[in-house]
Amino acid sequence: MAIDIGVDWSIVLLAMLPNLILAIAALWTQHYRRKVVRGEIILTNQPLPLPVRLYGWSVRSFTTSFVVYIGSIAFMFLLPLLAYAIYWPNMLPEYLDALRYWAPVLFGFTLFIICAISPDKTGGLGASAESLATTRPPPSDNSTEEHQS
Amino acid sequence: MVLLGDSRSGSEKGYLNVYFYPQDSSYGYRSSGYIYSSFRKTAELWWGPFQGGHGAVYASIDGQSDGYPIAECDNASRVIKYVAVLGYCYSSCEVVEMRIHDIGVVADLNRHDPTGPDPERSRPFDGTCSGTTESDRGRAFVAQYEDIAVGALTMAWLLPWPALEFTCNLIVDALEFHLVFTVDILGTLTPGGCTFVQPVLEAMTTEEQEGVVTKVMGLSTIQTLNAIIIASGAAAMFFATFQLLPGAQAAYTIAMTTWTVATMLLIYTLAEYYLNGLLTAIEAGSALIALIWTIFTAGTQISEQGLLGKALSFLIKYRGDPLPEWGFHTTFYWCARVLVLLLGVAVAAGIVASFSEGET
After folding, report:
1. Does any domain span residue B245?
2. How many angstroms away from the CA of A142 is the closest CA of chain B?
3. What is the pLDDT of residues B90-118, one digit of tens each?
4. Confidence (pTM)
5. Do residues B235 and B349 both lie within one domain?
6. Does residue A111 sit at the B interface (CB-CB below 8 Å)?
């Protein structure tokens, strides 16, 4: 049975979803970090935005990072594989042929990304964010300038 | 300092004094004396040689001087640090009555050997923008490559028919590039030879080289572009992190330019493949995932705490923090991102539009 093109794309888009969410969280955190460094956002005890918390959770330990990112890539390849194997077996040879290139490339690249960004105890916000979080604004200077008569 | 003063309230009695304040002794001055009418005088302060010492500061008012200096000053290059003009009067007089008409400062560096500025001493900064002049870093950046070019190029005259032979022997790390050409007195350019030596490729057997070529040629355009995007994205990340490595700025620029061009080509190719019915969903998805992750990582830095950061800790002295501020590079990177995003949206919109047209 031939697969409908819309269904095919829907399966792949669904498989990409965890990766997309993680990438958006990463971009959001990068943007948030830049704002913190510029002083546009003062970190207090109020909760961080959800994407920033998600990214922070995903990079704080290498094990979590490995499971989350490699898992999301594995999900991306396994979901279509299962769908094709069960419902459209005639698609399998073409799919497996494509995997010969894409699976090692994307797994390798993801491993590189994981090693580059984790473990990061600051959750991607950087040391500057840590220091800002503990720094209080200096007291206002009310002293008047002394003039010599 | 030039002091223009009114000496007493209720009386039009003024004076013009010239002071020199040495760094570690009391001041010396030249005075016009009290003047009881309107006056217009010219005060001069200058450094000159002095018997018994290295030099001294002299002053005159309307050319009148007793010939003696007002203070000794050995270090001629640091005679004048500040020039101040002070108008001083009592409140009963109008300030407008006392005016400084002109001030001229002449730095005559030919009169003695100036002492160079102390490089370790901080220079005061008054907040004025440096303007659009070339920065020292930019000049050093260009000079560095000029030196490489000059070092790699040798020239020799060939006889009997006079011809100038240029030999370029450029060795960057393990890569060797060798180019020879001659130009004779009639301007005829004759290439002599061009070789490129890469040690890894040289070490491979013919079968291995053919195998690599077959493998590379066997990749589809999307796969090739994707490999370039990942490699250039990772290289940009590496050089953004270790930005103090020699040539890091140029390498970062090349990597980001390659990434931008390859990314745009990939988006175009994806659209072309899709419209021609050649694109499979999994190939599109995989390429897009790689594209999205390189958009996130290409210009960022490798975390110092991360495993890769620790593995590359032997390069720690080259690590720069924060992200490189290489002038146009940051702007360029953001422009590249926005361009890629816009192109992606435009292509997606085009595909959707053509798809809906096909349905109607």
Report:
1. yes
2. 24
3. 666 555 556 667 777 766 655 544 455 55
4. 0.53
5. yes
6. no
